[in-house]
Design goal:
The complex is a heterodimer.
Chain A (H helix, E strand, L loop, with lengths): L1 E9 L5 E10 L4 E5 L6 H8 L7 E6 L2 E2 L8 H5 L2 E5 L10 H10 L5 H14 L15 H13 L5 E5 L7 H16 L3 E5 L3 H6 L3 E6 L2 E6 L9
Parallel strand pairs in A: 3-8, 3-9, 6-7, 7-8
Antiparallel strand pairs in A: 1-2, 1-4, 4-5, 9-10
Helix pairs in contact in A: 3-4, 3-5, 4-5, 5-6
Chain B lengths: L5 H25 L1 H36 L4 E5 L5 H13 L3 E7 L1 H12 L14 E7 L5 H9 L4 E5 L4 H41 L1 H9 L4 H42 L9 H31 L3
Antiparallel strand pairs in B: 1-3, 1-4, 2-3
Helix pairs in contact in B: 1-8, 2-6, 2-8, 2-9, 6-8, 6-9, 8-9
The structure holds adenosine-5'-triphosphate and magnesium ion.
The site of magnesium ion (MG) has 4 residues of chain A, from helix 1.
Subunit structure (chain A): Homodimer. Forms a membrane-associated complex with FtsX.
Pfam families (chain A): ABC_tran
Membrane topology (chain A): Peripheral membrane protein
């Protein structure tokens, strides 16, 4: 369902972040993206929801080249993709419930559906009882769970996470990984860039290693393979 | 997107619009001082625009009224006898662009003068110092000068007068006034738009994460944009309230004062209604326009997808 063909990305400042990359990811897969800092992992991930466009090559989602997608169609592409970040990106003025509901409000979902879905995902991430609390009153792991709840609330087919455990301690990181496993088990594709060796080595999935903008290793159930 | 029934879509749009309005109003309050600064700038700009338009439209009206009344006064030389005067009348009436030529003897002229300036002048009745006169009207006011020159070239003409360049002066004044005013107003409009776009920019910066998330979860560009456009529009509308009030009040006073004094004169001011309503609508429209345009200027830079 996701297919990259010779994707080459040169940023306006001249840096080549992706150097003719080829890859295929099927629906329902769980994929780790690993590699040294500056290798191009985030750039790779940003291609999938059109945060960045390839300078050349094809970026196919469901057979459609999203590099050629018209700007005004991009929002509809993104409604099928959930994104989670290292820094959570929660809105400080909104409480937990409102933060999750926000994702549905801005796509003009009906109020009853919003209410149902938000309570459903808050239950899933185990934060139903903290729905009225504000982000500053939550631990890092809880905040990340809110942001995961927000990313899956509109039932996307793909979930993309850029170092989702980067700011969390090991125990909390495992909680988050359990959630990801659970989400993946419902058929959602998960693509996750990470520097967490422990997780990659213990929770085995396909590993794609990127170095200098190229895939240097792609192994089902592979290990992390770096020393840090 | 799945298909939805039309009435459902409408309900959703109304709810969304309510949300946008709420957001835009909230942010007006949150930006307190910047809101005040841009509203003040819009107020000053629109007040000047209003007064300027009021003056220029009335000067135009006055010029129009006067133009329609421009006559050429042709003084017939003293050695012209009755036949020559009759010939002259035919010649003048026969000229291109002449609408009418009315003869008035020097006796009639003196009577008019006495009527205008009083009995003291009646002592001139013994030896009338005036000339016989033709009052000539051109078909088109603009032709006045050409016609006057042609008449001056005829025989038995002592002199020709046509407002002695008053009309030209009025037109020159009108044009100069218009140009100076337009430059001033453009500069002010630019300042007001700049301030509005700065206010909106502050709003946008304050809501960066929010916008980022909106875009990530698939909000359309219009959904993101509309609250900012509305905020700009409120700034413009708020800024046009005082100018409209003042312009209406001012013109009411002016017409109250001038109308009775100008009755029967050659020129009149524009009637209070509908003129002042047109000016008010113009002020409001300009306020909305600079508000929306100002916000567009800053949104464009920030919301590139
Ligand atoms: N917006 C940008 N403009 C210019 N250059 C960029 C931009 N984003 C990334 N780069 C450059 O592209 C290269 C790849 O960056 P990228 O963020 O994809 O690396 P990464 O693998 O995610 O690194 P990390 O593990 O540190 O997150 C780097 O050299 C970076 O400096
Ligand atoms: Mg990165």
């Amino acid at each position: 369902m996701i297919q990259m063909k010779n994707v080459y990305k040169k940023y306006p400042n001249g840096i080549v972040a992706l150097n003719g990359l080829n890859v295929e990811i099927a629906q329902g897969e769980f994929v780790y993206i690993v590699g040294p800092s500056g290798a191009g992992k985030s750039t790779f991930i940003k291609m999938m929801y059109r945060e960045e466009r390839p300078s050349s090559g094809q970026m196919l989602v469901d057979g459609k080249d999203i590099a050629k997608l018209k700007n005004r169609k991009v929002p509809f592409l993104r409604r099928d993709i959930g994104v989670v970040f290292q820094d959570f990106k929660l809105l400080p003025r909104l409480n937990v419930y409102e933060n999750v509901a926000f994702a549905l409000e801005v796509i003009e979902e009906k109020p009853q559906i919003i209410k149902e879905r938000v309570m459903e995902v808050l239950d899933m991430v185990g934060l139903k009882h903290k729905a009225k609390m504000f982000p500053r009153e939550l631990s890092g792991g809880e905040q990340q769970r809110v942001s995961i709840a927000r990313s899956i609330v509109n039932t996307p087919k793909i979930m993309i996470a850029d170092e989702p455990t980067g700011n969390l301690d090991p125990d909390t990181s495992w909680d988050i990984m359990n959630l990801f496993e659970q989400i993946n088990s419902t058929g959602t594709t998960i693509i996750m860039a990470t520097h967490n060796r422990e997780i990659v080595n213990k929770l085995r999935h396909r590993v794609i290693a990127i170095e200098g903008g190229l895939i240097v290793r792609d192994a089902a159930g592979g290990d992390y393979g770096y020393e840090d | 997107m799945s298909e939805t029934q039309p009435e459902v879509i409408t309900a959703m749009k109304i709810r969304t619009f309510g949300r946008h309005i709420k957001e835009s109003l909230k942010s007006l309050g949150r930006n307190g001082w910047m809101t005040f600064a841009s509203v003040s700038a819009v107020t000053v700009t629109l007040l000047l625009v209003g007064v300027f338009v009021m003056i220029m439209m009335n000067l135009n009206k006055v010029a129009d009224d006067l133009e329609n009344d421009v006559e050429i006064k042709v003084f017939v030389s003293l050695d012209a006898e009755e036949e020559e005067i009759a010939e002259l009348e035919e010649e003048i009436s026969g000229l291109d662009g002449v609408e009418s030529a009315d003869f008035s003897t020097k006796e009639e002229e003196l009577t008019d003068l006495v009527l205008d300036f009083g009995e003291e002048l009646s002592l001139f009745e013994q030896s009338n110092p005036l000339f016989d006169v033709f009052y000539v009207k051109a078909t088109e006011p603009q032709q006045t000068e050409t016609v006057a020159t042609e008449i001056a070239a005829l025989e038995y003409i002592e002199d020709v007068e046509y407002g002695e360049g008053k009309i030209e002066k009025l037109f020159n004044f009108l044009n100069a006034g218009r140009n100076v005013g337009l430059i001033l107003i453009l500069a002010l409009l630019f300042t007001a738009m700049f301030l509005i776009s700065n206010t909106i920019r502050i709003t946008i910066v304050a809501r960066r994460t929010e916008i980022e998330i909106m875009k990530l979860v698939g909000a359309t560009n219009w959904f993101v944009r509309v609250p900012f456009i509305l905020e700009g529009m409120w700034l413009g509308i708020l800024g046009s309230i005082i100018p409209i009030g003042l312009v209406v009040l001012l013109y009411q006073k002016i017409t109250e004062f001038a109308q009775p004094r100008l009755s029967g004169e050659l020129f009149q001011l524009l009637e209070f209604s509908p003129f002042i309503y047109q000016v008010s609508a113009l002020i409001l429209a300009m306020g909305v326009f600079i508000g929306i345009w100002g916000s567009f200027m800053s949104i464009r830079k920030f919301l590139r997808v």
